Amino acid sequence: MIHDWVDHMEDTQQVEIEAPEEVASMCPLKSFRFFRSKKVLTGSSDIRIGFLNRRTPWWDGSVIEGNDETGMKKVRTFRDGKLKISGDGLLEHDEKGIPISGDVRNSWAGVSAFQILFIREHNAVCDMLKERYPEFDDEQLYRRARLVTSAVIAKIHTIDWTIELLKTNTLLAGMRINWYGIMGKKFKDRFGHVFGPLLSGLVGQKEPEDHGVPYSLTEEFVGVYRMHSLLPDKLVVRDTTGGRVSRQGSLQIQEEVPMKEMVGTKGERRLSEIGVERMVVSMGHQACGALNLYNYPVWLRDIVPQDTDGQDRADLIDMPALEIYRDRERGVARYNEFRRNMLMIPISSWGDLTDDKEVIGALEEVYGDDVEKLDLLVGLHAEKKISGFAISETAFFIFLLMASRRLEADRFFTTNFNAETYTKEGLDWVNTTETLKDVIDRHFPGMTSRWMTSSSAFSVWDSPPTRPSLVPLYLRPAT
């Protein structure tokens, strides 16, 4: 989703970070150079400074569709509304080996695999619409397929991915209420156009609601969406040549590939060797990392960054150091002030943040006794987690606000979420697609029935199926 939403425009001035002498020996890079974020005036006052975004911040599938006119033209076939995909089922590539897709900056093979999946989804919608509406030209098919595919992505993110990230009964109910309303899907389908968002959900309201503030993704949202610790140090590739795996069994490991080999054009070559199906199954069987301190991937500490066209830059960067710098540079509040701004109780000592004595010792070494100096990202990773939450409670507040705002501020999920805009069949496609598993099943028939025993494609695939039992039946995922 980051590849769909956020990429700050850079200035032409480079800056350099140097590691202090006392820790330089432990740093993969003793120093590194990068471009500042480009500052702009955001209003009539010369003190209102903001930053420009290269990507479209809407839920519009720009990660596969493109962020501007040039990017959108590059990915289209201009035949039957479809997007480009190679004959072997992979992304097409230019003469430099860079993939042709909506967003290719700082990408890796896992992102490419999902781009492939949803390009297939877009093209399948085109086929369906062409059969039903033979009079539609390329542009009509393309526009409606983009709307349908984007809505499918938004729905999966809202009621499938998020509830795995925040695995509690309350959040399962809450995120489905966001989409379907408190009375559930059947009520929404029959009476949603009559009742307000509480009963019938945010999607399909009569008009967008921005609460008096033009929609944007805030710097606070960028700050809490820094989740590189989810990435592993190695991709565990599974052997999918065997038979069906039992609920007690597990796919054998074929190889473990260092993540540096999965990044950029090297990662594209690796993906072609592994294959999309084996890549998806392998990712499904590998647990992501925890969003905790001491768990940041080592390979991201001397990584090659890229330009917007996917070409490598000359200077290596230390990603965790750069992330801390970016929050400071863009004026994001430090951890304690951030919590105050959210009307949350600030910490008064390191013991309020964590019970881990090793972490407390490290925090004291870096920040002394001044809890007000604590950087946001460090605090989010050190904070005690609510049971079932992969993210901190502090980050959750921003997640909850922006998850609702992305839906209710968009006319394509409110005013124009209807058969006239999407077509009846397109709207049915969105309404009957509930999970990532549904999309995988559509394009890789038999994959999940053979290799997946979990309830969600966002759970580890060979884990036992689970479903919270305290949620009313009408709010539970469709079976």
Automatic annotation (TrEMBL):
<keyword id="KW-0223">Dioxygenase</keyword>
<dbReference type="GO" id="GO:0004601">
    <property type="term" value="F:peroxidase activity"/>
</dbReference>
<keyword id="KW-0611">Plant defense</keyword>
<dbReference type="InterPro" id="IPR019791">
    <property type="entry name" value="Haem_peroxidase_animal"/>
</dbReference>
<dbReference type="InterPro" id="IPR010255">
    <property type="entry name" value="Haem_peroxidase_sf"/>
</dbReference>
<dbReference type="GO" id="GO:0016702">
    <property type="term" value="F:oxidoreductase activity, acting on single donors with incorporation of molecular oxygen, incorporation of two atoms of oxygen"/>
</dbReference>
<dbReference type="InterPro" id="IPR037120">
    <property type="entry name" value="Haem_peroxidase_sf_animal"/>
</dbReference>
<dbReference type="Pfam" id="PF03098">
    <property type="entry name" value="An_peroxidase"/>
</dbReference>
<dbReference type="GO" id="GO:0006979">
    <property type="term" value="P:response to oxidative stress"/>
</dbReference>
<keyword id="KW-0408">Iron</keyword>
<keyword id="KW-0349">Heme</keyword>
<dbReference type="GO" id="GO:0006952">
    <property type="term" value="P:defense response"/>
</dbReference>
<dbReference type="GO" id="GO:0020037">
    <property type="term" value="F:heme binding"/>
</dbReference>
<dbReference type="GO" id="GO:0006631">
    <property type="term" value="P:fatty acid metabolic process"/>
</dbReference>
<keyword id="KW-0560">Oxidoreductase</keyword>
<protein>
    <recommendedName>
        <fullName>Alpha-dioxygenase 2</fullName>
    </recommendedName>
</protein>
<dbReference type="InterPro" id="IPR050783">
    <property type="entry name" value="Oxylipin_biosynth_metab"/>
</dbReference>
<keyword id="KW-0479">Metal-binding</keyword>
<feature type="binding site" description="axial binding residue">
    <location>
        <position position="228"/>
    </location>
    <ligand>
        <name>heme b</name>
    </ligand>
</feature>
<dbReference type="GO" id="GO:0046872">
    <property type="term" value="F:metal ion binding"/>
</dbReference>
